[in-house]
Each structure stands twice: as structure tokens, then as C-alpha cells.
Amino acid sequence: MPRIRTISRFLHLMDEESAWRKHELMQLRLKIISAEPAFREVLIRAGIALNYAHWEGFIKTSTELLLSFISGAKEKNSTLSTRFIVHSVKSEIESVINSKNPDHVTESLDSIIACFEKASNIRTSNYVDTESNLSSKVFDRIARSVGVDTLAYSHLYPFIDETILANRHKIAHGEKTNMSTEDYQRISDRVMDLMYQYKSDIENIAATKSYLRKDKITIL
To answer: What burial class does residue 161 get, using C-beta atoms within 10 Å of its C-beta: 0-12 exposed, 13-18 middle, 19+ buried?
Structure first.
């Protein structure tokens, strides 16, 4: 994913990412409504799978767009809030955690310290791990890692796990599902609302620069 260097470019890409997904979901909904009853059940099953795919895909891609924008801003790591410093020096942190060699640990720590006065460099391509199973727990981890307040989503966690995810698993495992058009529309509406809410939160982080820290890090 290329670096995003301006807020206007970031917002444009977020709009594009949201628009094509919403368009597909709305087009399929119209097909379901107008379909013959025998074919409608097949389309609903396909629609449940598509709703999950867009839920997972949007959370992953929009989060990576935010990280790409922050990295493209070329702020010093020392000016970023702690969670974004972690993203920027993640490989060095993992090296410290995984190493049993004290000399290697020392070198890695020196490297982390040296990074504080360097521009952030966050790897964004295929960076966000949804575990191919975007449950409420996985969503919570991803959202909090970029500073999204997940309390506003917590009342929807049962819906994420018991409706979006559970129905997707049933279809993926070849189980039969019986769902009315009205129930399908309610699920699709809720999925689009979730994506819109997350889009708004991600855009707000970029626009308000809340990814920057309020205090100053001083390395002695």
C-alpha cells in the first residue's frame, strides 16, 4: 500500500473504500427483493457471506489506510502516541521479546531508542491481521490498536458474534439457513452502520491528529 501524504487523499480513499462496498451490498439487496422465492433463498445465503466479507475487508483496509496516512506524514516516532510508536517499531520490539541472546536484546533496544528521532515507518501492506475470523474480540483488538474507543461498539458485540459471524460460519460449512428477506435487510443495515461508524472514527483520528502524543518523550 503506497504512503498517503495528505489528509484529503486519505479521506478520498476512505470514501472510495466505503462506496464500492455499500454499492455491492445495495445491488444485491435489490436482487433479493425482486427475486423469485426459490432463488431468493440462494441470494440471501450469498448475501450473508458477502456482508461478512465486506465487514472484515473494510475494517482491515480502513485501518491500514490510517496507518499508511500516519506513516506518510513522516512525523518523528517521538511525537506519536505510544500505540503508534509500537506500530512503527514493531519488528524491533518482537526481536527483543523473542531473543534469548542478551547481546541481541541490547542491540535491539539500542535500535528502538535510535528510532525515536527518526520518521515513523509503519508497514501497512497486509499488516492488519483479522485472523480470517473478525469476531468482536478480534475487532476490539484491531480498533484499540489505533485508538478507536470500542466502548461505543460493545453493545453490538453479540450481533457481530451471534449474527454476522455465526451465520457466515454456517454457510461456509454447508449448513442450511432459513432467513426472511426482512431479517436479511436488518442484518445488512446493521453491517453498513458498523462500517460507517468505524469509518467516522478512523477519519476523526486522522483529522484531529489524535495519533500525536500530548507529552514529549525525552531520551537521556
So the answer is: middle
| Residue-level pLDDT at 97 | 67
> Which distant-in-sequence residues (6+ apart) come within 8 Å of 139 by Cβ?
59, 150, 153, 160
pLDDT 10s digits, 136-154: 999 999 999 999 999 999 9
CB 48 within 8 A of CB 187: yes
Q: Of 69, 84, 79, nearest to 118 (Cα)? A: 79
Residue 117, CA distances (Å) to 71, 87, 130, 219 in order: 14, 15, 31, 9
Cα 113 to Cα 84, 116, 219: the distances in Å are 15, 6, 8
Q: What is the C-alpha separation between 45 and 167, in angstroms, rounded?
A: 9
Read off the pLDDT of residues 95-107 as tens digits, 9 standing for 90 and up: 666 767 777 767 7
Angle, helices 181-208 vs 37-72, to 10°: value is: 10
If one compares 202 and 100, the residue with the highest pLDDT of the two is 202
184 class by beta-carbon count within 10 Å (0-12 exposed, 13-18 middle, 19+ buried): buried
